[in-house]
Amino acid sequence: MRNPINELLKSTRMRTKMFVVTVVLVGFFMGLSLYQSLVIHKKTAMDQVARSSDNLMENIYSAIRFPMSIGDEKTIKEQMKDVKERIYDIQVYILDFRRQISYASEKERINSSMEKYLNGNESRKALAQVLATGKAPGESFPDIENKKPFLVTIKPILNESSCRHCHGTGRKVLGAMVIKQHVGDVLAAIVQTRNRLVIYFATALIGLVIFINFFFSRLVTQRIRLLGKKTGQVAAGDVTVKVIDDHQDSIGTLSRNFNQMVKSIRDRMEYANSLKLGISDPFFTVDPEMNVAFINEAAARLVGLSREEAIGMPCCEVFNSSVCKDECPIKKALETGEATVGQRATIKNRKGREIPIMASSALLKDSSGKALGGFEIIRDLTAEVKAEKKLQNAYLREGKAKLAAEAAARAKSDFLANMSHEIRTPMNGVIAATDLAMGEDSPPKVKHYLGIIQSSAYSLLEIINDILDFSKIEADKLDIETHTFLLDEVIERVTNVFMSKAVKKGIELLVDIDLEVPNALVGDSLRLQQVIKNLVDNAIKFTKKGGAIFMGVKALEKTSDRATLEFFVKDTGIGITPEYLDKLFKPFTQADTSTTRKHTGTGLGLSICKRLVELMGGRIWFESESGKGSTFSFTVRLGRQSADQKRKLVPPAETIVQEEAMDTPVISTEVLLAKVIPLLKQLADALELADPEEINISFKAVKEHLDFSTLQELENQLNDYDYGKALKSLEEIAAKIGGRLN
User: How high is the pLDDT of residue 242?
Assistant: First the structure.
């Protein structure tokens, strides 16, 4: 639905609009000023009449006050008569508290009710208020009588001390004095003034409108008309026009912006022409009738025509494309407005040779959306098609090679997984035999050679274990088990395993478990223990004497049945240089070659840890600074047991040593328990980890405090690698000396 006001505004000239707006605005403000002037003038005149009534009332009241106090009615009536005869258009009434007129300048109204002569609601309410409160209203009120305007002024007559001999003291207000002053002449004068002001303001309005319209015509209309003329030339296609306007106002700014806009249009046209001529790929445009409007040299050369021959010809006759009839991209752009990118097709040149191409087309339109034609960029794919065929053949060969390589990798992983078991069995025999030989009395040189064999065997067994885990990972055979366990026991087993190694190296090993971390968990405790053990082992390996290692756990997230924990191992060791930060978790990688020569290891440990952590739903990362140490952290997602068990906070046991002043020391049962039970626990942890090196070290420490008969059965079980029975034997030994492992 059309809006008639909008239609009228659209069809009206700018000058007319400005004239109307000027008249409305100037008329509004001048009318407002006129209204304000009339209101002020009327109020001033009425205020003067009110003040005159107040003064007259005070004079009359002063004249009759004494006669009223002594009851001199004659004098009061004479005063009323004088008012009637001497003061024109003034009515004076003295009434009692019942509103009955006692004295009046109008004799015929005496003994009548005053309300008969007060027609205005405001004056009646004011009279009632005065008689009730004894307070003058402080203003006068308009009233009408016989169609004549009056101004009513009211004053209370109070029961003063001079009146109480007649009226007593029971009533505060005896009555009121009312003056009605005729204001017809005043209002007539106000009307005359209003008429004069209207004429004055109308004259001023006409003059001001004429002046403003002339001013706008000179400064606005003519300049806008000139600007409109120039825009019409640009619309007709002339982009060489320029508007000369050096004013610093909005129209001047508009003119300068217009000049800049025309320059931008010229620049864009030049840019488009340069771009069109600079496109090296075949390129052409068509009009809405699909006739060629422009074609560059590359496109003309591709089809075997000159540019002059091709321009004006139907597009399909120029290119003879395989998609001209049904899937022409440029025809699709003209019909639907959709662009086509990378459509493959073939065209025939004038010699009949088919050429594979890739075409991209789009619509050309003006700012209103009207289609002016379309354009197409062509890419000759002759070389690419040949290369694609070669590449496809190469892909086929590569695919076959990849399948063969994957099969070989699987076979290698299966072989490593099987061979690691086969190698580890005789290696355990070598270690056991070496341990037995070390216990025999042998020459120092032989013991030295046996020590080398023992150390090398343990290193080789560790390498075999790493290769076994890595081969399981490569063969995707490494599984994560799920069972209940206590986190405290896992941490305690790790610390027990490494305590002696840390003490020998002079390194402090500290543990910090946040109290918010749940203790009773569900998951693979052995794999979790393997990750922590590997990180602590590395920390001890790369930390010098006098350093410290901090191991801790904190809870990141907890629910009733799940928990996400973060573990960290921080050392004060040699740290890692920045160039090796991205390589550390890759298999067979250590910090550098010098580290490999100085410290043992395969470089598989951290790679295995990374895979184990990922299998447990977490991630592993580290922070390091060369020469200052490293912090390795990892997260795991574990289940929670339905009934959590509180963590046991056990202070470290004090070392108790008692020696008598004798040749042979006497050790009490308490001292034996204090020294041996921790060693038995350490040996039990090593058995659970199935770590031969730690088992050997821990067993030697136990042998220093217990006799051969007590340990004979345990030693035989260790030599047979029957770690399950060995654990039971440890519990029996602890019970014999009055202690327990748990």
Answer: 84
- What's the rounded Cα separation, in Å, for the pair 49 and 43? 10
Rounded to whole angstroms, how far apart are CA atoms 334 and 325?
A: 14
Q: Looking at the chain, how many residues does it have?
A: 742
H or E stretch at 624: strand 620-625
What residues contact residue 170 under an 8 Å CB cut-off, 6+ apart? none
For residue 666, pLDDT over 60 is answered with no
Residues 6+ apart with CB under 8 A from 577: 591, 592, 626
In the beta sheet, which residues pair with residue 371? 365
Question: What residue spans of 440-507 are helical by DSSP H?
Answer: 444-474, 487-505
pLDDT category of residue 602 using cuts at 50, 70 and 90: low
The H or E element that residue 511 is part of is strand 508-513
Measured CA distances, 232 to 247, 328, 462 (Å):
22, 38, 91
Which residues make Cβ contacts (< 8 Å) with residue 81, sequence separation at least 6? 105
Asked if 30 contacts 197 with a C-beta cutoff of 8 angstroms, the reply is no
DSSP code of 218? I
Q: What is the 3-state secondary structure (H, E, C) of 95-106?
A: EECCCEEEEECC
646-652 own/partner pairs: CB under 8 Å, 24+ apart: 646/519, 647/487, 647/488, 647/513, 647/515, 647/517, 647/519, 648/488
Which two three-digit tokens encode residue 690? 């199935």
The answer for residues whose C-beta is within 8 angstroms of residue 174's C-beta and 6 or more apart is 96, 97, 157, 158, 159, 163, 167
Extract the tokens encoding 385.
């098609």
Q: How far apart are alpha carbons 636 and 564 in whole angstroms?
A: 6
Look at strands 148-158 and 173-182 and give their pairing.
Answer: antiparallel
Kindly report the number of other CB atoms within 10 A of residue 710's CB atom. Answer: 16
Q: How far apart are CA 596 and CA 605, in angstroms?
A: 13
Provide the token pair at 194: 């209003």
CA distance 383 to 181: 115
For 194, phi then psi, to 5°, come to -60, -45
Q: How does pLDDT run across 75-134, given as a tens digit for each residue?
A: 888 888 888 888 878 889 999 888 898 888 888 888 898 888 888 888 889 889 988 888
Cα angle for residues 312, 318, 322 (degrees, 5° grid) = 140
Provide the token pair at 316.
Answer: 């399909």
Please check whether residue 62 is in contact with residue 75, taking contact to mean a CB–CB distance below 8 angstroms: no
Under 8 Å between Cβ of 498 and 459 = no
- Give the residue with greater pLDDT, 652 vs 386: 386
> How many Cβ atoms sit within 10 Å of the Cβ of residue 92?
23
pTM of the model: 0.37
Q: Distance between terminal CA atoms of the chain?
A: 92
Neighbours of 53 (CB within 10 A): 22
Find the farthest-apart pair of alpha carbons in the chain and give their distance in angstroms, rounded: 164
β-strands 90-96, 173-182 pairing: antiparallel
pLDDT tens digits for range 223-254: 777 777 888 888 777 878 888 877 777 777 88
Angle between helices 222-235 and 250-278 (to 10 degrees): 10
| Euclidean distance between CA atoms 473 and 460, whole angstroms | 20
In the predicted model, is pLDDT for residue 449 greater than 60?
yes
CA distance 252 to 256: 6
β-pair type (508-513, 620-625): unpaired
CA-based angle 697:698:701, to the nearest 5?
A: 90
Q: Which residues pair with 548 in a beta bridge?
A: 508
Question: Where would I find the H helices in 360-443?
Answer: 382-439
Neighbours of 431 (CB within 10 A): 22
